[in-house]
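for the writeup, i need someone to sanity check this before i put it in the appendix. the sequnce is what the collaborator sent (i think, or maybe the updated version? ugh). structure was predicted straight from it, no edits. if anything looks off just tell me and ill rerun, i have time this weekend
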Amino acid sequence: MATQRPLRIIAMIPARYAATRFPGKLMQDLHGKTVIRRTYEAAKKTELFDEVYVVTDSEIIFNEIVGNGGNAIRSKKEHECGSDRIAEAVEDMDVDIVVNVQGDEPLIDTESLQKLLEVFYEKDAEMIDLASLKTSLINKKDIENPNNVKVITDKDNLALYFSRSPIPFPRDETTGVTWFKHIGIYAFRKQALLDFYRLPMLVLEATEKIECLRYLEYGKNIKMVETTVKGVGIDTPEDLEEARKLLEE
């Protein structure tokens, strides 16, 4: 990394107790600890952050973290997405970069997070509002799955668009294009996050239900960083079983 003033970097883990597909998933047992506690401790263990917080609307989750010696913040009001929840929490904090760590992804990959943060020390850092991760998709079923958000970038790895549809459309399958899945871990400049919080949702975000489209619609620059680590997001009981098996390895 280039030498410059150290940035103050914190991790925020937005955590809702209610979940449509798997209610209470963050309080499920994962080898003797809850999912949310494992995620919090994994974020701390990376040693990449000045502070790590869980930000939640749930008294149960708040007590789980604080009761085990961690840092947690109670949301003051209801929020539609994790970015809004985090923005409210950091508004009065002295911080440069805020990393959104998903509460249902306890198997955090330190190397991928390190790559993400390096974006803010590179030569074009001043023009980057936020950075996020992507990983290649090979299986046709995965490419066509609307639950996998796809991203396309320009030659400098700046995001052009995110979609639940396969993008680009393979009209000519001989071009050797690679499809990429967006992994929902973000590193925001604080101001970009506050701008997101204050700006209304526009039509693309409302249509696709992909919150990072709001940044693109308002002209923000999103740098995408490739990783080979797929991660395990716990959205179903089956995902929880997979995470248990991976922890045993």
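The mean pLDDT is 90. The longest helix spans residues 237-248.
thx in advance!!
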